[in-house]
Amino acid sequence: MERNIAQIALFAAMVAALGVVPPITLGFGVPISAQSMGAMLAGAVLGARAGAAAMGLFLLLVALGLPLLSGGRGGLGVFVSPTAGFALGFLPAAFVTGLVVEHIRLRSAGLRAALGAVIGGIAVLYVFGATGLSMVADKPLSEAFMLAAVFIPGDLLKAAVTGMLVQAVARIRPQTLGWYRVNAGSLRP
Questions:
Q1: CATH of domain 2-21+33-180
Q2: For 76-101, what is each residue's pLDDT tens digit?
Q3: Burial degree of 130 (CB within 10 A; 0-12, 13-18, 19+)
Q4: Centroid of chain to Cα 91
Q5: C-alpha–C-alpha distance, residues 161 and 34, integer Å
Q6: DSSP 32
Q7: Fewest C-beta atoms under 10 Å: which of 2, 63, 87, 143?
Q8: pLDDT value at position 189?
Q9: 138: pLDDT confidence band, cut at 50, 70 and 90?
Q10: Are 65 and 9 in contact (CB under 8 A)?
Q11: 20 near 66, Cβ under 8 Å?
């Protein structure tokens, strides 16, 4: 239990640290940052519940005013900005990434993680992000999805990096993976 709490806090801190990487802001107000990879990693390493808890903790700290989002943003105002859907999408993105990693029948931990990151950390995150962008920017949903599509190449790279990192963890310290014990018989490090 204590180890799980420490891991949740660690992953929330990691997502905050990924926000320090200077973002590239596009014309419609949504920055390209490394933080979405944090949601992918949280789900892929910790599993669905703990990964979502880490993102929930991160979002709570942002809501309390800590400047943890890329560009040093924090406070309730970020939840009514063009990035609101992407920020709120971190929690379900980590959860779905974790669900995929926990339940998919692939022997490679890295492939599990990469596939989970594509489904949860890209597809699910884009549903939330584009919906939020559509609402806040008063754009049709189809246009918001087209604007968000500019992020796909970078996010596919983040999903690949997530897979490589999880594969390395599976080789070195598989017990660190929150879902490993459940799938130990079907995993190839």
A1: 1.10.1760.20
A2: 999 999 889 999 999 999 999 999 99
A3: buried
A4: 7
A5: 11
A6: E
A7: 2
A8: 52
A9: very high
A10: no
A11: no
Q: pLDDT tens across 165-182, in order?
A: 999 999 999 988 887 755
Other residues' Cβ atoms within 10 Å of the Cβ of residue 185? 5
Cα(164)–Cα(144) distance, integer angstroms: 31
CA angle centred on 86, ends 39 and 114, rounded to 5°: 35
Residue type at position 126? Y
Reduced to 3 states (helix: H, G, I; strand: E, B; else coil), residue 25 is strand
Tokens of 47: 């599993």
Q: What SS3 state is found at 107?
A: coil
* Residues in contact with 48: Cβ distance below 8 Å, sequence separation at least 6, in sequence order: 94, 95, 96, 97, 98, 99, 102, 179
As given in the structure block, the two tokens for residue 23 are 């973002």
